[in-house]
Design a protein that fits this description.
The complex is a heterodimer of chains A (about 280) and B (about 260). Chain A has about 280 residues and is an all-alpha fold. Chain A is about 75% helix and about 0% strand. The longest helix of chain A is centred in the C-terminal third of the chain and has 38 residues, at about 190-225. The radius of gyration of chain A is 22 Å and the shape is globular. The chains are: A mainly alpha (about 280), B alpha/beta (about 260). Bound molecules: adenosine-5'-triphosphate and magnesium ion.
Protein backbone atom coordinates (compact mmCIF):
# COMPACT_ATOMS: atom_id res chain seq x y z
CA UNK A 1 0.00 0.00 0.00
CA UNK A 2 1.86 3.01 -1.27
CA UNK A 3 -0.19 5.81 0.22
CA UNK A 4 -0.58 4.18 3.57
CA UNK A 5 1.55 6.49 5.65
CA UNK A 6 0.05 9.65 4.08
CA UNK A 7 -3.39 8.70 5.12
CA UNK A 8 -2.34 7.66 8.56
CA UNK A 9 -0.67 10.96 9.17
CA UNK A 10 -3.66 12.80 7.77
CA UNK A 11 -5.91 10.83 10.07
CA UNK A 12 -3.68 11.49 13.03
CA UNK A 13 -3.48 15.20 12.26
CA UNK A 14 -7.21 15.48 11.79
CA UNK A 15 -7.84 13.62 14.98
CA UNK A 16 -5.43 15.90 16.75
CA UNK A 17 -7.08 19.02 15.40
CA UNK A 18 -10.46 17.79 16.60
CA UNK A 19 -9.01 18.19 20.06
CA UNK A 20 -9.89 21.64 21.32
CA UNK A 21 -7.44 23.32 23.66
CA UNK A 22 -9.87 23.04 26.55
CA UNK A 23 -9.12 19.29 26.61
CA UNK A 24 -5.57 19.62 27.69
CA UNK A 25 -5.75 20.14 31.39
CA UNK A 26 -2.22 20.12 32.63
CA UNK A 27 -1.91 17.54 35.41
CA UNK A 28 -0.41 20.16 37.68
CA UNK A 29 -3.55 22.26 37.53
CA UNK A 30 -5.79 19.46 38.71
CA UNK A 31 -5.18 20.42 42.31
CA UNK A 32 -6.94 23.73 41.75
CA UNK A 33 -10.39 22.08 42.03
CA UNK A 34 -12.07 24.95 40.10
CA UNK A 35 -13.63 23.74 36.88
CA UNK A 36 -11.89 25.26 33.91
CA UNK A 37 -14.31 27.82 32.51
CA UNK A 38 -12.09 29.18 29.76
CA UNK A 39 -13.83 27.01 27.19
CA UNK A 40 -17.22 28.50 28.00
CA UNK A 41 -16.26 32.11 27.29
CA UNK A 42 -16.55 31.88 23.52
CA UNK A 43 -19.92 30.06 23.45
CA UNK A 44 -21.24 32.70 25.84
CA UNK A 45 -20.04 35.54 23.58
CA UNK A 46 -21.61 33.86 20.56
CA UNK A 47 -24.88 33.47 22.43
CA UNK A 48 -24.88 37.15 23.45
CA UNK A 49 -24.13 38.28 19.89
CA UNK A 50 -26.83 35.99 18.57
CA UNK A 51 -29.41 37.37 21.00
CA UNK A 52 -28.38 40.96 20.22
CA UNK A 53 -28.57 40.36 16.49
CA UNK A 54 -32.06 38.94 16.93
CA UNK A 55 -33.28 41.67 19.29
CA UNK A 56 -32.18 44.52 17.00
CA UNK A 57 -33.30 42.64 13.91
CA UNK A 58 -29.86 42.86 12.28
CA UNK A 59 -30.85 39.71 10.46
CA UNK A 60 -34.36 38.73 9.34
CA UNK A 61 -35.80 36.32 11.98
CA UNK A 62 -36.74 33.97 9.17
CA UNK A 63 -33.03 33.40 8.61
CA UNK A 64 -31.83 33.80 12.19
CA UNK A 65 -34.44 33.20 14.90
CA UNK A 66 -33.67 34.32 18.44
CA UNK A 67 -32.09 31.78 20.84
CA UNK A 68 -35.29 31.58 22.85
CA UNK A 69 -37.32 30.78 19.71
CA UNK A 70 -34.89 27.94 19.08
CA UNK A 71 -35.35 26.63 22.60
CA UNK A 72 -39.12 26.75 22.14
CA UNK A 73 -38.76 24.94 18.83
CA UNK A 74 -36.66 22.32 20.58
CA UNK A 75 -39.37 21.75 23.16
CA UNK A 76 -42.04 21.55 20.49
CA UNK A 77 -40.00 19.07 18.44
CA UNK A 78 -39.41 16.97 21.50
CA UNK A 79 -43.00 16.87 22.73
CA UNK A 80 -45.18 17.35 19.65
CA UNK A 81 -42.92 15.79 17.04
CA UNK A 82 -40.63 12.84 17.31
CA UNK A 83 -37.23 14.46 17.79
CA UNK A 84 -36.18 11.80 20.26
CA UNK A 85 -37.01 9.11 17.74
CA UNK A 86 -34.97 10.83 15.00
CA UNK A 87 -32.14 11.39 17.40
CA UNK A 88 -32.06 7.72 18.35
CA UNK A 89 -32.27 6.74 14.69
CA UNK A 90 -29.09 8.68 14.00
CA UNK A 91 -27.35 7.37 17.11
CA UNK A 92 -28.32 3.82 16.17
CA UNK A 93 -26.81 4.14 12.70
CA UNK A 94 -23.60 5.70 13.97
CA UNK A 95 -23.27 3.20 16.81
CA UNK A 96 -23.70 0.16 14.59
CA UNK A 97 -21.55 1.56 11.80
CA UNK A 98 -18.77 2.37 14.24
CA UNK A 99 -18.86 -1.04 15.88
CA UNK A 100 -18.99 -3.06 12.65
CA UNK A 101 -16.51 -0.83 10.82
CA UNK A 102 -13.92 -0.73 13.54
CA UNK A 103 -14.30 -4.39 14.48
CA UNK A 104 -13.68 -5.44 10.88
CA UNK A 105 -10.83 -2.94 10.62
CA UNK A 106 -9.14 -4.20 13.79
CA UNK A 107 -9.47 -7.81 12.69
CA UNK A 108 -8.15 -7.29 9.17
CA UNK A 109 -5.66 -4.64 10.29
CA UNK A 110 -4.11 -7.02 12.78
CA UNK A 111 -4.08 -9.84 10.22
CA UNK A 112 -2.46 -7.62 7.59
CA UNK A 113 -0.05 -6.17 10.13
CA UNK A 114 1.12 -9.61 11.15
CA UNK A 115 1.36 -11.07 7.67
CA UNK A 116 2.72 -9.48 4.50
CA UNK A 117 0.77 -12.09 2.54
CA UNK A 118 -2.54 -10.86 3.92
CA UNK A 119 -1.53 -7.26 3.27
CA UNK A 120 -0.56 -8.04 -0.30
CA UNK A 121 -3.83 -9.86 -0.81
CA UNK A 122 -6.03 -6.97 0.34
CA UNK A 123 -3.73 -4.03 -0.47
CA UNK A 124 -4.61 -3.08 -4.07
CA UNK A 125 -8.34 -3.70 -3.62
CA UNK A 126 -8.54 -1.71 -0.42
CA UNK A 127 -6.48 1.13 -1.83
CA UNK A 128 -8.93 1.48 -4.68
CA UNK A 129 -12.09 1.22 -2.58
CA UNK A 130 -10.63 3.62 -0.08
CA UNK A 131 -10.43 6.36 -2.69
CA UNK A 132 -14.14 6.19 -3.50
CA UNK A 133 -15.70 8.32 -0.74
CA UNK A 134 -18.33 6.62 1.40
CA UNK A 135 -20.97 9.06 0.24
CA UNK A 136 -20.26 8.14 -3.39
CA UNK A 137 -21.17 4.56 -2.49
CA UNK A 138 -24.50 5.57 -1.02
CA UNK A 139 -26.58 5.84 -4.24
CA UNK A 140 -25.62 2.34 -5.34
CA UNK A 141 -26.01 0.82 -1.91
CA UNK A 142 -29.42 2.46 -1.54
CA UNK A 143 -30.46 0.82 -4.79
CA UNK A 144 -29.48 -2.50 -3.29
CA UNK A 145 -30.57 -2.13 0.31
CA UNK A 146 -33.22 0.57 0.15
CA UNK A 147 -33.35 3.93 1.94
CA UNK A 148 -33.45 2.41 5.44
CA UNK A 149 -30.74 2.18 8.07
CA UNK A 150 -28.70 -0.75 6.63
CA UNK A 151 -27.47 1.19 3.58
CA UNK A 152 -26.31 4.06 5.77
CA UNK A 153 -24.72 1.74 8.29
CA UNK A 154 -22.78 0.03 5.52
CA UNK A 155 -21.57 3.26 3.96
CA UNK A 156 -20.51 4.82 7.26
CA UNK A 157 -18.90 1.57 8.39
CA UNK A 158 -16.81 1.76 5.25
CA UNK A 159 -15.66 5.26 6.21
CA UNK A 160 -14.86 4.06 9.73
CA UNK A 161 -13.04 1.02 8.43
CA UNK A 162 -10.19 2.62 6.54
CA UNK A 163 -8.59 4.97 9.06
CA UNK A 164 -8.77 2.24 11.70
CA UNK A 165 -7.48 -0.45 9.35
CA UNK A 166 -4.55 1.65 8.16
CA UNK A 167 -3.56 2.84 11.62
CA UNK A 168 -3.76 -0.68 13.04
CA UNK A 169 -1.59 -2.00 10.23
CA UNK A 170 0.90 0.82 10.59
CA UNK A 171 0.89 0.61 14.38
CA UNK A 172 1.82 -3.07 14.21
CA UNK A 173 4.48 -2.52 11.59
CA UNK A 174 6.10 0.22 13.67
CA UNK A 175 6.66 -1.93 16.75
CA UNK A 176 10.25 -1.46 17.83
CA UNK A 177 12.54 -4.26 16.76
CA UNK A 178 14.12 -4.16 20.22
CA UNK A 179 10.88 -5.31 21.78
CA UNK A 180 10.58 -8.21 19.37
CA UNK A 181 14.12 -9.17 20.29
CA UNK A 182 13.25 -9.00 23.97
CA UNK A 183 10.29 -11.29 23.36
CA UNK A 184 12.66 -13.78 21.77
CA UNK A 185 15.00 -13.61 24.75
CA UNK A 186 12.05 -14.24 27.08
CA UNK A 187 11.04 -17.17 24.81
CA UNK A 188 7.54 -15.79 24.28
CA UNK A 189 5.35 -17.76 21.89
CA UNK A 190 3.91 -16.05 18.83
CA UNK A 191 0.55 -15.61 20.53
CA UNK A 192 2.21 -14.17 23.68
CA UNK A 193 4.24 -11.85 21.47
CA UNK A 194 1.10 -10.56 19.76
CA UNK A 195 -0.88 -10.16 22.96
CA UNK A 196 1.79 -8.79 25.27
CA UNK A 197 4.00 -6.85 22.89
CA UNK A 198 2.63 -6.13 19.44
CA UNK A 199 -0.95 -5.13 20.25
CA UNK A 200 -0.09 -2.87 23.20
CA UNK A 201 2.64 -1.24 21.13
CA UNK A 202 0.16 -0.56 18.34
CA UNK A 203 -2.51 0.68 20.74
CA UNK A 204 -1.67 4.42 20.64
CA UNK A 205 -1.98 4.43 16.89
CA UNK A 206 -5.20 2.39 17.03
CA UNK A 207 -6.79 4.65 19.64
CA UNK A 208 -6.06 7.78 17.61
CA UNK A 209 -7.81 6.27 14.63
CA UNK A 210 -10.81 5.09 16.66
CA UNK A 211 -11.33 8.56 18.02
CA UNK A 212 -11.03 10.07 14.60
CA UNK A 213 -13.37 7.49 13.08
CA UNK A 214 -16.04 8.04 15.74
CA UNK A 215 -16.15 11.76 14.96
CA UNK A 216 -16.16 11.04 11.25
CA UNK A 217 -19.06 8.60 11.56
CA UNK A 218 -21.17 11.15 13.39
CA UNK A 219 -20.47 13.81 10.78
CA UNK A 220 -21.31 11.41 7.96
CA UNK A 221 -24.64 10.25 9.36
CA UNK A 222 -26.05 13.74 8.86
CA UNK A 223 -24.98 13.74 5.22
CA UNK A 224 -26.24 10.21 4.62
CA UNK A 225 -29.62 10.92 6.21
CA UNK A 226 -29.90 14.13 4.24
CA UNK A 227 -29.31 12.26 1.01
CA UNK A 228 -31.72 9.40 1.61
CA UNK A 229 -34.30 8.21 4.08
CA UNK A 230 -37.14 9.75 6.06
CA UNK A 231 -35.76 9.93 9.59
CA UNK A 232 -32.78 11.03 11.61
CA UNK A 233 -31.24 14.40 12.44
CA UNK A 234 -29.84 14.75 8.93
CA UNK A 235 -33.28 14.24 7.44
CA UNK A 236 -34.75 16.83 9.83
CA UNK A 237 -32.11 19.39 8.85
CA UNK A 238 -32.75 19.13 5.16
CA UNK A 239 -36.50 19.04 5.66
CA UNK A 240 -36.31 22.15 7.84
CA UNK A 241 -34.34 23.90 5.13
CA UNK A 242 -36.97 23.04 2.53
CA UNK A 243 -39.79 24.31 4.74
CA UNK A 244 -37.76 27.35 5.86
CA UNK A 245 -38.09 26.23 9.51
CA UNK A 246 -34.88 27.93 10.54
CA UNK A 247 -35.52 27.41 14.23
CA UNK A 248 -35.80 23.64 13.78
CA UNK A 249 -32.75 23.68 11.57
CA UNK A 250 -30.76 25.39 14.31
CA UNK A 251 -32.05 22.93 16.91
CA UNK A 252 -30.66 20.08 14.85
CA UNK A 253 -27.36 21.84 14.27
CA UNK A 254 -26.84 22.49 17.96
CA UNK A 255 -27.69 18.88 18.82
CA UNK A 256 -25.28 17.59 16.19
CA UNK A 257 -22.53 19.82 17.51
CA UNK A 258 -23.11 18.85 21.13
CA UNK A 259 -23.29 15.13 20.40
CA UNK A 260 -20.14 15.33 18.29
CA UNK A 261 -18.45 17.08 21.17
CA UNK A 262 -19.64 14.41 23.61
CA UNK A 263 -18.48 11.59 21.33
CA UNK A 264 -15.04 13.12 20.98
CA UNK A 265 -14.74 13.72 24.72
CA UNK A 266 -15.69 10.17 25.58
CA UNK A 267 -13.30 8.77 23.00
CA UNK A 268 -10.61 10.99 24.45
CA UNK A 269 -11.29 9.66 27.94
CA UNK A 270 -11.30 6.09 26.68
CA UNK A 271 -8.02 6.73 24.93
CA UNK A 272 -6.52 8.21 28.06
CA UNK A 273 -7.65 5.23 30.09
CA UNK A 274 -6.31 2.65 27.69
CA UNK A 275 -3.01 4.51 27.30
CA UNK A 276 -2.51 5.41 30.93
CA UNK A 277 0.94 3.85 30.73
CA UNK A 278 2.10 6.56 28.35
CA UNK A 279 4.21 9.28 29.88
CA UNK A 280 2.61 12.70 29.85
CA UNK A 281 -0.06 11.44 27.50
CA UNK A 282 -2.51 14.17 26.60
CA UNK A 283 -4.28 12.88 23.54
CA UNK B 1 19.29 -20.37 44.08
CA UNK B 2 20.16 -20.79 40.43
CA UNK B 3 22.61 -23.43 39.27
CA UNK B 4 25.51 -21.46 37.90
CA UNK B 5 26.35 -22.28 34.30
CA UNK B 6 29.69 -23.17 32.81
CA UNK B 7 30.19 -21.30 29.54
CA UNK B 8 32.72 -22.37 26.96
CA UNK B 9 33.43 -20.35 23.85
CA UNK B 10 35.70 -22.13 21.38
CA UNK B 11 37.15 -20.61 18.24
CA UNK B 12 34.17 -18.40 17.60
CA UNK B 13 34.36 -16.23 14.50
CA UNK B 14 31.66 -14.05 13.04
CA UNK B 15 31.48 -11.94 9.91
CA UNK B 16 28.91 -9.42 8.81
CA UNK B 17 28.36 -8.90 5.14
CA UNK B 18 26.74 -5.69 4.06
CA UNK B 19 25.70 -5.50 0.41
CA UNK B 20 28.35 -3.78 -1.72
CA UNK B 21 30.97 -3.85 1.01
CA UNK B 22 33.73 -6.26 1.92
CA UNK B 23 33.07 -8.78 4.70
CA UNK B 24 33.66 -7.38 8.18
CA UNK B 25 35.42 -9.66 10.63
CA UNK B 26 33.50 -8.79 13.77
CA UNK B 27 34.84 -11.65 15.86
CA UNK B 28 37.94 -13.65 15.10
CA UNK B 29 38.79 -16.89 16.89
CA UNK B 30 37.45 -15.97 20.28
CA UNK B 31 38.17 -18.46 23.06
CA UNK B 32 36.83 -18.00 26.53
CA UNK B 33 36.07 -20.26 29.45
CA UNK B 34 33.76 -18.95 32.13
CA UNK B 35 33.73 -21.05 35.32
CA UNK B 36 30.39 -21.76 37.02
CA UNK B 37 29.53 -18.83 39.26
CA UNK B 38 32.31 -16.62 37.91
CA UNK B 39 31.97 -12.92 37.19
CA UNK B 40 33.72 -12.12 33.92
CA UNK B 41 33.92 -8.63 32.47
CA UNK B 42 34.66 -7.82 28.86
CA UNK B 43 36.21 -4.45 28.07
CA UNK B 44 37.36 -3.11 24.74
CA UNK B 45 37.02 -0.24 22.30
CA UNK B 46 33.71 0.58 20.72
CA UNK B 47 32.93 -1.67 17.78
CA UNK B 48 35.20 -4.55 18.80
CA UNK B 49 32.27 -6.95 18.90
CA UNK B 50 31.33 -7.13 22.59
CA UNK B 51 27.60 -6.84 22.01
CA UNK B 52 27.88 -9.21 19.07
CA UNK B 53 29.48 -11.83 21.32
CA UNK B 54 26.66 -11.44 23.87
CA UNK B 55 24.07 -11.79 21.10
CA UNK B 56 25.66 -15.09 20.09
CA UNK B 57 25.66 -16.35 23.68
CA UNK B 58 22.05 -15.35 24.30
CA UNK B 59 21.05 -17.06 21.06
CA UNK B 60 19.68 -14.15 19.06
CA UNK B 61 22.17 -14.76 16.26
CA UNK B 62 23.40 -18.19 15.21
CA UNK B 63 25.26 -17.34 12.08
CA UNK B 64 28.80 -17.90 13.35
CA UNK B 65 31.70 -20.34 13.24
CA UNK B 66 32.98 -22.21 16.29
CA UNK B 67 31.23 -23.52 19.36
CA UNK B 68 29.46 -21.92 22.27
CA UNK B 69 28.45 -24.35 24.99
CA UNK B 70 26.64 -23.94 28.26
CA UNK B 71 27.29 -26.85 30.62
CA UNK B 72 28.80 -28.77 27.71
CA UNK B 73 25.66 -28.41 25.59
CA UNK B 74 25.77 -26.36 22.44
CA UNK B 75 23.44 -23.40 22.79
CA UNK B 76 20.49 -23.34 20.43
CA UNK B 77 18.23 -20.28 20.18
CA UNK B 78 17.16 -18.34 23.23
CA UNK B 79 16.30 -20.02 26.51
CA UNK B 80 15.24 -18.99 29.98
CA UNK B 81 18.48 -20.52 31.29
CA UNK B 82 20.29 -17.56 29.72
CA UNK B 83 19.26 -14.05 30.77
CA UNK B 84 20.36 -10.68 29.45
CA UNK B 85 20.18 -7.07 30.56
CA UNK B 86 20.38 -4.64 27.67
CA UNK B 87 21.98 -1.22 27.78
CA UNK B 88 18.57 0.37 27.24
CA UNK B 89 16.55 -1.20 30.05
CA UNK B 90 13.98 -2.35 27.48
CA UNK B 91 11.12 -2.57 29.94
CA UNK B 92 7.79 -2.66 28.11
CA UNK B 93 6.17 0.73 28.80
CA UNK B 94 2.64 -0.71 28.92
CA UNK B 95 3.42 -3.19 31.68
CA UNK B 96 3.88 -2.39 35.33
CA UNK B 97 7.12 -3.29 37.04
CA UNK B 98 5.77 -6.61 38.31
CA UNK B 99 4.19 -7.44 34.95
CA UNK B 100 7.47 -6.71 33.21
CA UNK B 101 9.31 -9.08 35.49
CA UNK B 102 6.48 -11.60 35.28
CA UNK B 103 6.82 -11.62 31.50
CA UNK B 104 10.09 -13.50 31.82
CA UNK B 105 8.23 -16.29 33.63
CA UNK B 106 5.43 -16.79 31.09
CA UNK B 107 7.00 -19.99 29.83
CA UNK B 108 8.82 -21.07 32.97
CA UNK B 109 6.32 -23.84 33.61
CA UNK B 110 5.98 -22.70 37.21
CA UNK B 111 2.72 -22.41 39.10
CA UNK B 112 1.03 -19.02 39.59
CA UNK B 113 2.21 -18.97 43.22
CA UNK B 114 5.80 -19.79 42.29
CA UNK B 115 5.81 -17.04 39.69
CA UNK B 116 4.36 -14.49 42.09
CA UNK B 117 6.93 -15.41 44.67
CA UNK B 118 9.81 -15.12 42.19
CA UNK B 119 8.56 -11.72 41.04
CA UNK B 120 8.22 -10.46 44.59
CA UNK B 121 11.61 -11.83 45.64
CA UNK B 122 13.43 -10.29 42.71
CA UNK B 123 11.77 -6.93 43.15
CA UNK B 124 12.97 -7.01 46.73
CA UNK B 125 16.41 -8.23 45.62
CA UNK B 126 16.97 -5.09 43.54
CA UNK B 127 15.45 -2.87 46.22
CA UNK B 128 12.29 -1.85 44.36
CA UNK B 129 9.67 -3.11 46.82
CA UNK B 130 6.75 -0.69 46.84
CA UNK B 131 7.06 0.02 43.12
CA UNK B 132 5.36 -3.18 41.91
CA UNK B 133 2.53 -1.29 40.25
CA UNK B 134 4.64 1.51 38.79
CA UNK B 135 4.94 1.94 35.04
CA UNK B 136 8.44 2.28 33.55
CA UNK B 137 7.97 6.00 32.87
CA UNK B 138 7.48 6.47 36.59
CA UNK B 139 10.90 4.98 37.36
CA UNK B 140 14.24 6.76 37.27
CA UNK B 141 16.98 5.49 34.97
CA UNK B 142 18.69 3.68 37.83
CA UNK B 143 15.45 2.09 39.00
CA UNK B 144 14.67 0.96 35.46
CA UNK B 145 18.08 -0.71 35.22
CA UNK B 146 17.46 -2.47 38.53
CA UNK B 147 14.13 -3.64 37.19
CA UNK B 148 15.84 -4.96 34.07
CA UNK B 149 18.31 -6.85 36.25
CA UNK B 150 15.42 -8.30 38.25
CA UNK B 151 13.75 -9.40 35.02
CA UNK B 152 16.98 -10.99 33.83
CA UNK B 153 17.29 -12.96 37.06
CA UNK B 154 13.67 -13.84 37.81
CA UNK B 155 13.62 -17.05 35.77
CA UNK B 156 16.73 -18.16 37.70
CA UNK B 157 19.03 -18.45 34.67
CA UNK B 158 22.32 -20.29 34.81
CA UNK B 159 24.06 -17.30 33.32
CA UNK B 160 23.23 -13.60 33.14
CA UNK B 161 24.70 -11.34 30.46
CA UNK B 162 24.87 -7.61 31.13
CA UNK B 163 25.56 -5.31 28.18
CA UNK B 164 26.73 -1.98 29.58
CA UNK B 165 23.81 -1.95 32.01
CA UNK B 166 25.09 1.12 33.83
CA UNK B 167 26.41 3.03 30.82
CA UNK B 168 23.63 5.59 30.77
CA UNK B 169 23.69 6.41 34.49
CA UNK B 170 25.40 9.20 36.39
CA UNK B 171 28.63 8.40 38.27
CA UNK B 172 27.05 8.21 41.74
CA UNK B 173 24.14 5.99 40.75
CA UNK B 174 26.60 3.84 38.85
CA UNK B 175 28.83 3.28 41.86
CA UNK B 176 25.79 2.52 43.94
CA UNK B 177 24.51 -0.02 41.44
CA UNK B 178 27.96 -1.60 41.18
CA UNK B 179 27.67 -2.39 44.87
CA UNK B 180 24.21 -3.79 44.21
CA UNK B 181 25.33 -5.98 41.32
CA UNK B 182 28.16 -7.29 43.49
CA UNK B 183 25.76 -8.15 46.26
CA UNK B 184 23.24 -9.72 43.86
CA UNK B 185 25.95 -11.83 42.23
CA UNK B 186 27.02 -13.16 45.62
CA UNK B 187 23.44 -13.81 46.77
CA UNK B 188 22.25 -15.45 43.56
CA UNK B 189 25.43 -17.33 42.80
CA UNK B 190 24.79 -17.03 39.09
CA UNK B 191 27.47 -16.86 36.41
CA UNK B 192 27.66 -13.32 35.07
CA UNK B 193 29.26 -11.77 32.02
CA UNK B 194 29.40 -8.01 32.00
CA UNK B 195 30.35 -5.71 29.13
CA UNK B 196 31.50 -2.27 30.15
CA UNK B 197 33.66 0.68 29.09
CA UNK B 198 34.42 1.44 32.69
CA UNK B 199 37.69 -0.23 33.71
CA UNK B 200 37.15 0.57 37.37
CA UNK B 201 33.79 -1.16 37.22
CA UNK B 202 35.48 -4.16 35.64
CA UNK B 203 38.09 -4.45 38.38
CA UNK B 204 35.56 -3.78 41.12
CA UNK B 205 33.20 -6.58 40.10
CA UNK B 206 35.06 -9.36 38.33
CA UNK B 207 37.04 -12.53 38.91
CA UNK B 208 38.33 -12.17 35.42
CA UNK B 209 38.67 -9.29 32.98
CA UNK B 210 38.84 -9.98 29.26
CA UNK B 211 40.33 -7.25 27.08
CA UNK B 212 39.24 -7.17 23.47
CA UNK B 213 40.62 -5.27 20.49
CA UNK B 214 38.93 -4.28 17.25
CA UNK B 215 39.51 -5.08 13.59
CA UNK B 216 39.13 -7.93 13.83
CA UNK B 217 37.32 -8.28 17.16
CA UNK B 218 39.49 -10.55 19.29
CA UNK B 219 40.63 -11.18 22.84
CA UNK B 220 44.04 -9.68 23.47
CA UNK B 221 44.40 -10.31 27.16
CA UNK B 222 42.74 -12.11 30.05
CA UNK B 223 43.48 -11.03 33.64
CA UNK B 224 42.46 -12.77 36.84
CA UNK B 225 41.47 -10.42 39.63
CA UNK B 226 42.14 -12.09 42.95
CA UNK B 227 41.40 -9.23 45.34
CA UNK B 228 38.93 -10.10 48.10
CA UNK B 229 35.37 -8.74 47.98
CA UNK B 230 34.16 -6.12 48.72
CA UNK B 231 36.92 -4.23 46.98
CA UNK B 232 38.41 -0.89 47.82
CA UNK B 233 38.75 1.34 44.79
CA UNK B 234 41.66 3.21 46.39
CA UNK B 235 43.66 0.07 47.23
CA UNK B 236 47.06 0.27 45.44
CA UNK B 237 46.61 -3.29 44.13
CA UNK B 238 43.24 -2.23 42.68
CA UNK B 239 44.77 0.81 41.03
CA UNK B 240 47.65 -1.25 39.65
CA UNK B 241 45.21 -3.71 38.05
CA UNK B 242 43.27 -0.83 36.56
CA UNK B 243 46.48 0.50 35.01
CA UNK B 244 47.37 -2.92 33.62
CA UNK B 245 44.03 -3.22 31.90
CA UNK B 246 44.26 0.29 30.50
CA UNK B 247 47.68 -0.58 29.10
CA UNK B 248 46.32 -3.78 27.60
CA UNK B 249 43.57 -1.77 25.94
CA UNK B 250 46.26 0.34 24.28
CA UNK B 251 46.83 4.09 24.44
CA UNK B 252 43.59 4.88 22.54
CA UNK B 253 41.30 2.53 24.34
CA UNK B 254 42.90 3.54 27.60
CA UNK B 255 42.10 7.20 27.12
CA UNK B 256 38.50 6.52 26.13
CA UNK B 257 37.99 4.31 29.11
CA UNK B 258 39.44 6.76 31.63
CA UNK B 259 37.26 9.50 30.25
CA UNK B 260 34.20 7.29 30.50
CA UNK B 261 35.04 6.25 34.04
N1 LIG C 1 23.57 -6.07 12.06
C1 LIG C 1 24.82 -5.72 11.70
N2 LIG C 1 25.15 -5.67 10.39
C2 LIG C 1 26.40 -5.33 10.02
N3 LIG C 1 27.38 -5.00 10.86
C3 LIG C 1 27.12 -4.99 12.17
C4 LIG C 1 25.82 -5.36 12.66
N4 LIG C 1 25.84 -5.28 14.01
C5 LIG C 1 27.08 -4.88 14.34
N5 LIG C 1 27.86 -4.73 13.26
C6 LIG C 1 29.26 -4.35 13.25
O1 LIG C 1 29.94 -5.22 14.11
C7 LIG C 1 30.93 -4.54 14.83
C8 LIG C 1 30.81 -4.85 16.29
O2 LIG C 1 29.61 -4.33 16.79
P1 LIG C 1 29.22 -4.47 18.33
O3 LIG C 1 27.89 -3.83 18.50
O4 LIG C 1 29.36 -5.87 18.72
O5 LIG C 1 30.35 -3.60 19.02
P2 LIG C 1 30.57 -3.29 20.57
O6 LIG C 1 31.89 -3.80 20.94
O7 LIG C 1 29.41 -3.75 21.35
O8 LIG C 1 30.61 -1.71 20.55
P3 LIG C 1 30.07 -0.68 21.64
O9 LIG C 1 31.06 -0.66 22.73
O10 LIG C 1 30.04 0.62 20.90
O11 LIG C 1 28.72 -1.14 22.06
C9 LIG C 1 30.80 -3.07 14.50
O12 LIG C 1 31.84 -2.72 13.63
C10 LIG C 1 29.47 -2.97 13.81
O13 LIG C 1 29.56 -2.03 12.77
MG1 LIG D 1 27.78 -2.79 22.39
Amino acid sequence: MSHTSDTIEAAAVEAATVDLPAHAEAPGRRGLQLPNLTGFILPFIILVLWQTAATYKWIDPVFLPAPLTVVTAFWKMLTKQKLAFDFLASINIVGQAFIYGSAAALLLGIAAGLSRKVEEFFGPTFDTIRHIPGIAWLPLIVLWLGIGAPAKILVIAKSVFFPVFLNTLQGIRNVEKNYIELAKVLTLTRWQLIRKVILPAAMPSIMVSLRYAAGLAWALVVVAEGLSGLEGLGFLIFRAQGLLLTDQLLVCMVIIGLVGFAIDRSMFLAQKRVLKWKQGYDG
Amino acid sequence: MATPGHLTIRNVSKTYSLPGRPLVNVLSRVNLDVEPGAFVTIVGPSGCGKSTLLRLIIGLDYDYKGEIELNDKRIVGTALSRGIVFQDHRLLPWLTLEQNIGLSLENSGWTRAEKDLAVREHIALVGLSGFEKAYPHELSGGMAQRAAIARGLASRPEILLLDEPLGALDALTRIHLQDEIQRIWEVEGVTMILVTHDVEEAVFLSNKVVVMAAKPGRIVETLDIDLPFPRDRADPAFVALKRRILTAMGEDGGKTATRAA
